[in-house]
Design brief:
alpha+beta; Outer membrane efflux proteins (OEP); elongated
Length: 469
């Protein structure tokens, strides 16, 4: 029975973990249903330099260098590296040494002192018969790679946050410019209305209507200025700066790149950092379950010890004599006879945690696939809407031009002019918002596909997770 337990302790952990995760991925569609597939499993979108905006690229780089959260994430990676190093130290013998000196004398004759010296050397090596250490190393190694994947996910999210904030500032600038053009038109129209009222050619209700629309235009400018300031502060925060509204943004809203080529769904989903982290967490959970499952079995231990203990009086000549070096080899066998069911409860808890982790992993995969399909669909929808909004804006602008000419000629009422103007300005504003929404959605798609600004995340494999590698 003990031999059986020993053999189980060293059975592979990663392979059964990947087999269980593969079952949870069963049923994943073989294509994306909403976009063509290239069949290239490594297909990802390129980084944010595709926008050909040097200022955006520099902002992304600045954020990746300065973000405090990212610095904290890299410290988590370093802690995981040290945890693995600490666990792997069990593979090596532990060697220690001590050196001491002491003097003593009777209180009535302090000159008659006796000096004693001691030197001890010991070494110990514990044999991992049950496989606990092997499982712990695999758990720590998987934990390290999982932490690295989380760091990578954090890095990509920060880059996406900066890009969104950058385009939000540009949209705010365009909306403010639109509102300023609107107030200029309202002022020009009000001057004409005031002149006609003074001449007695229109009633007071038209004058008051003009005053109302002019005040609303002024309010829109104030609100747009506040929104722009808030957007600039949000970008400064994303860059790791104190928000002071000191950024000078000169860019424009570019056309987003086309939908990227898509690889096989399973490989594309599994290349996402969050899914990579989930798979590595599963391996860690399987390793911890393996450790817990060994507890009910007889625990066999073996150690090799090398020891030396020397002590001399009033001299150090033989202090470092190795003639007394002793070697000992020991073995032990221990078995819990009764503990009120504590060990059994711990094993069942570990098995339950493993099942729960598998279900969470399965949901993570479903969510990842849904994120990608939803992002593609929304991106394509916004592209179609952009075509319609461009037509609507162009037509409404022409109607406004004709309406202003008619009003100046006296053949158009002020109310109709305001109706036409509001329609044109709303169409222009909607077009600007949709253009920015398309860019935001491209960024969402970039993130959903695991798009990486600089490098790809390797898939977790049984070979790469064995022995803490």
């Amino acid at each position: 029975m003990a031999v059986f337990a020993s053999a189980c302790g060293h059975l592979p952990i990663a392979e059964p973990a990947f087999e269980a995760m593969s079952e949870k991925r069963a049923g994943m569609p073989a294509d994306w249903t909403v976009a063509p597939m290239t069949g290239d499993p490594a297909a990802v979108i390129s980084d944010y330099s595709v926008f050909n905006d040097a200022q955006l690229t520099s902002f992304v780089q600045e954020a990746l260098e300065n973000n405090r959260g990212l610095r904290a994430a890299i410290e988590s990676v370093r802690q995981s590296e040290l945890a693995l190093q600490s666990t792997r130290s069990g593979l090596f013998p532990q060697i220690g040494a001590s050196l001491g000196a002491r003097t003593s004398a009777p209180t009535d004759d302090l000159g008659s002192n006796t000096d004693s010296y001691s030197f001890a050397l010991n070494g110990r090596y514990d044999v991992d018969i049950m496989g606990d250490l092997n499982a712990s190393i695999q758990a720590a190694g998987a934990g390290l790679r999982s932490t690295e994947a989380v760091y990578e996910q954090t890095r990509r999210q920060i880059a996406a946050q900066v890009a969104r904030a950058y385009f939000a500032v540009i949209e705010g600038q365009l909306q403010l410019e639109l509102d300023r053009q609107s107030i200029d038109r309202q002022r020009q129209t009000f001057r004409i209305t005031q002149t006609r009222f003074d001449a007695g050619s229109i009633a007071r209700d038209e004058l008051v209507l003009g005053e109302s629309n002019l005040a609303q235009a002024e309010d829109s400018v104030i609100a747009s200025e506040a929104s722009l300031r808030a957007a600039v502060r949000a970008l400064e925060l994303a860059l790791g700066r104190f928000p002071q509204n000191k950024l000078n943004i000169q860019g424009a809203l570019p056309e987003p790149p086309t939908t990227p080529p898509l690889g096989l769904p399973e490989l594309t989903v599994r290349s996402r950092p969050d899914v990579v982290a989930a798979e590595l967490n599963m391996i860690q959970t399987f390793a911890n379950t393996r450790i817990a499952s060994m507890a009910p079995w007889p625990q066999i231990g073996a150690d090799i010890t090398l020891g030396l203990q020397n002590q001399t009086l009033n001299t150090t000549s033989d202090l470092f004599d190795f003639d007394g070096l002793a070697l000992s080899i020991g073995a032990s066998l221990a078995q819990v006879i009764f503990d009120g069911g504590a060990v059994d409860a711990r094993v069942k808890t570990a098995n339950s945690q493993e099942r729960a982790a598998l279900e969470r992993y399965g949901q993570t995969v479903i969510n990842a696939y849904g994120d990608i399909v939803g992002a593609i669909d929304t991106f394509n929808t916004l592209g179609s809407r952009n075509v319609a909004l461009e037509k609507a804006s162009t037509a409404a602008t022409e109607v406004l031009r004709l309406g202003e000419l008619k009003y100046q000629e006296g053949s158009e009422s002020l109310l109709n002019l305001f109706t036409v103007r509001n329609s044109a300005e709303n169409a222009q504003s909607a077009l600007i918002s949709n253009r920015r929404a398309r860019l935001d959605q491209w960024i969402t798609l970039h993130t959903a596909l695991g798009g990486n600004p600089t490098q790809s995340t390797p898939l977790a494999t049984p070979a790469s997770t064995a022995n803490g590698k």
